[in-house]
Specification:
8 strands; 6-stranded parallel sheet; 347 residues; alpha/beta; Rossmann fold; binds nicotinamide-adenine-dinucleotide; 13 helices; Dehydroquinate synthase-like, alpha domain; 2 domains
Length: 347
Amino acid sequence: MQFTHDWLPQRVRFAPGGAAEAIVEEVRRLGAARVMAIASDATRAEPVLAGVPVVVLHTDVVMHVPVEVAQRARAVADEHRAGALVCVGGGSTTGLAKAVALTTGLPIVAVPTTYAGSEATDVWGLTEHGRKTTGVDPAVLPRAVVYDASLMLGLPVPTSVASGLNALAHCVDSMWGPRTDPIDRSLALEGIRALRTGLPRVVEEPMELAGREQTLYGAYLSAVAFASAGSGLHHKICHVLGGMFDLPHAELHAALLPYTAAFLLPAAPEAGRRIAEALGGGDPAEAIGALARDVGTPRSLAALGLTEDDAVRAAAVAAPELPDDPRRPTPAELEDLLRRAVRGAAF
Ligand code: NAD
């Protein structure tokens, strides 16, 4: 066994019902007297910001961080002489805080309210003229993350399960991502176990803390694994599809994962065996499809507005960029995979 694993330097707190106090402590640790808060929804953020020295609450958040949205937020940070950023929201909100940190170096305290996992990675993304560029920079890794599952009680069930499947996709791709190692895979498998327990519970009892907590724990592990392992085939295809057709991020991952898993898992029997075990047995790809079906995520790419013609165009763009571990599809196989995903053929 020979590998090198980099742990990202970050403080992580799980504080159910305790976000307000935890954020105050984390801001104090940073020594920041002037905080720029970023949130997609002020009503959701204000209660947890009560004790924080917020000089401005910025709510101009757009999914995939268009460059002009990032520039406006950076100007606001300058104007208010912010010394730290506190972001309260989903991946889009965290993404905007990262865009500000990228050019200003301001430290971030992240308070996630979805299961996207961006808070645990050093990856930033910006969109310009319909093209998303991503990069890795230590400056964008939040210094501290405060997970408070009670903030998720209001996240609608369809958004919750799509976001949870986005986390599951991080776990699955971490089994063979370009830098994967045994630590990534063990985190990913524990993430799968937590998501499998938590997500059905969220569907049954969306206002109960236990299911939300398990899902959040799984989402965190998934992101730590993914940040280290890097993007596999599933994420590469989603990146192309999302960019070409401006699709909702979590729903796209949720709808496509059963298809990419069914294609890849036969070529990765050891990963498949361990994923199946984490999901309670059976065929791993079927178990992933069954979990998606049971929690009610979108069943096809057509449900997101994609046509088979779109799938053919996307396959042509994506095919040359795909990794070959554990298996690289031929252009014809990729086209078939995407056509099937458009039709919802696996369910
Ligand atoms: P999002 O942040 O856009 O949130 C989805 C919707 O849920 C929004 O309308 C938001 O207002 C709402 N919402 C969020 N929290 C809520 C709550 N608690 N209650 C009610 N409504 C709530 O979507 P997302 O899926 O969380 O994030 C997607 C973005 O994150 C994409 O741009 C994606 O590329 C990025 N992302 C980045 C990384 C990374 O490592 N850099 C990882 C994952 C996702």
